[in-house]
């Protein structure tokens, strides 16, 4: 039977390689040999010790920073936006390949969970990724609150157009269907077990008024006047006059819960928090996240035994930990199940080849071949398909490539 019982012996070469392939883009023989002498807990403690990228933001071709941040708002540069985009991609690639921890891997996983495109400004793309990086050791629930107000997400799923006089359900629908609780079996017209069309409509009402002003939130420096009080990362705004202030009543899928409409910026943000609390209080939301964690870090196949013995207890722990992701990852990645040591049954291995998405395929290739970053760029430049993949845009339903063992 699948088991979350921890593996307590040292990893050895094969298991160390397995763990590193699943958790980082920085894989060398020396690192595998080092991890081979560690227990899973010791290895994960090291992998989950995060630090800021070096340098902390993209540079131009003379080494100047090009992205003003709250910590470093004054910069001097003269490059075109096109150059900014290239330098930003190179910086992210370099950071991912040099990162000894699991942080960039988790950032990419969070991007798959809350996927956007890169159609907004260069500055909002950088802020979105910084928001993901901030939450690599934090709560998925907190990320859901903040990504809802993120300028890149507001534009991607049109919530900047969602007003009390003309509701737009796009983000509300994707939030329930793809970002959080997900659809269950359709048991009636408009009833997807975990939520209904009524819930989409009521969620859209909750989300009215969360918007942005292009001249502020898409501008290189003006965006720094609208910062999240906790992350210090630029965020969108609340337009009180376009918010639906009425009470929102949800279906029996959420026990008929009613959420009082806010009338000020503070109470509207509290209303959003109450809505997200309601969604994350459901056991199915925790299970949905744990299935996605499992498929990304372990394997695509979730049997009935894995559902009952791995997903259900992981989901209970994730929910009890306020959706903080690292405790759940630690439990899973140090388990005997992850190393296929809980039984001797053939054909159920969790160790094996991985079907990777394009971004991770190239990152792992560069790491294995120990390419210098300069040579890596020589490969990237002529490859149109690779260039597109490195813009880091999975489809709206997330990248379905994931760990798969053979």
Automatic annotation (TrEMBL):
<protein>
    <submittedName>
        <fullName>DUF1800 family protein</fullName>
    </submittedName>
</protein>
<dbReference type="InterPro" id="IPR014917">
    <property type="entry name" value="DUF1800"/>
</dbReference>
<dbReference type="Pfam" id="PF08811">
    <property type="entry name" value="DUF1800"/>
</dbReference>
């Amino acid at each position: 039977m699948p088991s979350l019982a921890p593996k307590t012996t040292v990893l050895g070469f094969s298991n160390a390689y397995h763990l590193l392939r699943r958790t980082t883009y920085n894989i060398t023989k020396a690192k595998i040999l080092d991890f081979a002498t560690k227990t899973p807990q010791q290895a994960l403690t090291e992998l989950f010790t995060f630090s800021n990228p070096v340098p902390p933001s993209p540079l131009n071709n003379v080494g100047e920073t090009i992205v003003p941040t709250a910590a470093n708002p004054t910069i001097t540069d003269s490059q075109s936006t096109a150059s900014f985009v290239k330098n930003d991609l190179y910086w992210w690639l370099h950071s991912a390949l040099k990162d000894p921890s699991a942080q960039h891997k988790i950032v990419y996983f969070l991007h798959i969970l809350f996927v956007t495109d890169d159609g907004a400004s260069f500055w909002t793309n950088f802020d979105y990724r910084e928001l993901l990086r901030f939450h690599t050791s934090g709560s998925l629930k907190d990320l859901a609150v903040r990504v809802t107000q993120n300028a890149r997400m507001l534009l991607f799923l049109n919530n900047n157009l969602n007003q009390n006089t003309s509701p737009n359900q796009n983000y509300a629908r994707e939030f329930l269907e793809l970002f959080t609780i997900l659809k269950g079996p359709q048991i009636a017209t408009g009833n997807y077990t975990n939520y209904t069309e009524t819930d989409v409509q009521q969620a859209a009402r909750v989300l009215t008024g969360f918007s942005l002003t292009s001249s502020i939130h898409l501008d290189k420096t003006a965006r720094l006047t609208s910062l999240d009080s906790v992350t210090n990362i630029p965020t969108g705004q609340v337009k009180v006059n376009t918010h639906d202030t009425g009470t929102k009543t949800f279906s029996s899928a959420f026990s008929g819960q009613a959420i009082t409409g806010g009338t000020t910026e503070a109470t509207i943000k509290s209303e959003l928090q109450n809505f997200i609390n309601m969604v994350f209080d459901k056991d199915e939301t925790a299970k949905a996240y744990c299935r996605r964690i499992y498929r990304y870090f372990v394997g695509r196949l979730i049997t009935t035994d894995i559902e009952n013995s791995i997903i259900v207890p992981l989901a209970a722990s994730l929910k009890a930990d306020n959706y903080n992701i690292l405790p759940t990852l630690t439990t899973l990645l140090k388990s005997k199940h992850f190393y296929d040591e809980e039984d001797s049954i053939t054909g159920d291995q969790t160790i094996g080849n991985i079907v990777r998405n394009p971004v991770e395929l190239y990152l792992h290739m560069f790491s294995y071949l120990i390419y210098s970053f300069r040579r890596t760029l020589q490969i990237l430049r002529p490859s149109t398909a690779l260039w597109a993949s490195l813009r880091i845009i999975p489809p709206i339903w997330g990248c379905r490539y994931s760990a798969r063992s053979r």
